[in-house]
Write a structure and sequence with these properties.
binds adenosine-5'-triphosphate; 6-stranded mixed sheet; Rossmann fold; alpha/beta; 6 helices
C-alpha cells in the first residue's frame, strides 16, 4: 500500500538560545494512503505542532518529513505553498469567515486551484454543501448557523477540492454528542469516497472508533506502538 505520510527522526524546537524548548522528540510515523489515523494525548504534548508540520504550515527543522513523496524538510516557502494545495484543513468551527456566506466560504477551498472557472467553483461548492446536508443554507452566514452546521461548512470547504490529505484539529471540540458524531461520520464517508488520508487530533473519546489506528503523543514523544495496527471498534 502507498505511504502518504512518512516521518522519521523528526524533532522540533520553539524559541532560541536559553529560551529554546524542544517540543517534539524523534518522531517516527508512517501513514498509508486512505488510512484514518487519530492522534490523542494530553494538552501541550505536541499534537498540533506535529499536525502543522505535516500540513506544511511550519517548517521542519530536522529529520525527514515526507508528504505524498515530497520531502518537506528543507523545503522553501514556494514548495511549502504548493504542498499545502494537497491538503484540506479542518479546525474548530471559528475559522470560517463571518462576513462570507456558507457558499462563499466553501468556494474559498477552491481558490488555490486557479484552473477552475468561477461558475464551476460555484457549482462544486454548492454541490458539496448539499452533500453535507446544507443545500438549503447556501446563502446563510456563519453567525446564523448552529455549531454543527458551521463545522459541516468547514468540512465542505476542506474537502471540496478533493484533497489527498485531510488534517483535522479537534473538529468536534465545540459540538454536542450528536453533532460531533455527524461531522466525523461525514469526514469518514467523504474521505473514503475520495480516497483521502486523514490525520485527526482529538481529545474526544466518543469518536475514536472512526480510526483505522490510534497514536498517542506524550511529552513530545509518539507512543512506541504508534506503527502497530491498533484496531478499534
Ligand atoms: N508558537 C509557539 N511558540 C512557542 N511554544 C509553542 C508554540 N506553539 C506551541 N508551543 C508549545 O509547544 C508545546 C506543544 O504544543 P501543542 O499545541 O503542539 O500541543 P497540543 O498537544 O496540541 O496541545 P492541545 O491539546 O492543548 O492543543 C506546548 O508546550 C506549547 O506551549
Amino acid at each position: 500500500m502507498a505511504v502518504a505520510i512518512s516521518i522519521h527522526h523528526l524533532n522540533h524546537h520553539f524559541g532560541h538560545g536559553q529560551l529554546q524548548k524542544q517540543v517534539l522528540f524523534d518522531i517516527e510515523l508512517e501513514i498509508n494512503s486512505g488510512e484514518i489515523v487519530i492522534m490523542t494525548g494530553p494538552s501541550g504534548s505536541g499534537k498540533t505542532t506535529l499536525l502543522t508540520l505535516v500540513g506544511g504550515l511550519r517548517s521542519a527543522q530536522s529529520g525527514s518529513l515526507k508528504v505524498l513523496d515530497q520531502e518537506l524538510y528543507g523545503a522553501g516557502a514556494t514548495e511549502l505553498t504548493l504542498a499545502r494545495r494537497h491538503n484540506g484543513y479542518i479546525f474548530q468551527a471559528h475559522n470560517l469567515h463571518h462576513s462570507l456566506t456558507a457558499l462563499q466560504n466553501v468556494k474559498m477551498g477552491l481558490e488555490l486551484h486557479p484552473h477552475l472557472l468561477l461558475p464551476d467553483m460555484e457549482k462544486r461548492a454548492a454541490a458539496m454543501l448539499e452533500h453535507v446536508g446544507l443545500g438549503d443554507r447556501l446563502h446563510s452566514y456563519p453567525d446564523d448557523l448552529s455549531g454543527g452546521q458551521k463545522q459541516r461548512v468547514a468540512i465542505a470547504r476542506a474537502l471540496v477540492s478533493h484533497p489527498k490529505i485531510v488534517l483535522a484539529d479537534e473538529p468536534t471540540a465545540a459540538l454536542d454528542k450528536k453533532s460531533g458524531r455527524d461531522v466525523v461520520n461525514l469526514m469518514q464517508t467523504l474521505a473514503k469516497e475520495q480516497g483521502g488520508t486523514i490525520l485527526l487530533v482529538t481529545h474526544d473519546n466518543r469518536i475514536l472508533d472512526i480510526a483505522d489506528r490510534i497514536v498517542y503523543m506524550e511529552d513530545g514523544c509518539l507512543g512506541k506502538n504508534s506503527n502497530a495496527l491498533e484496531t478499534v471498534g
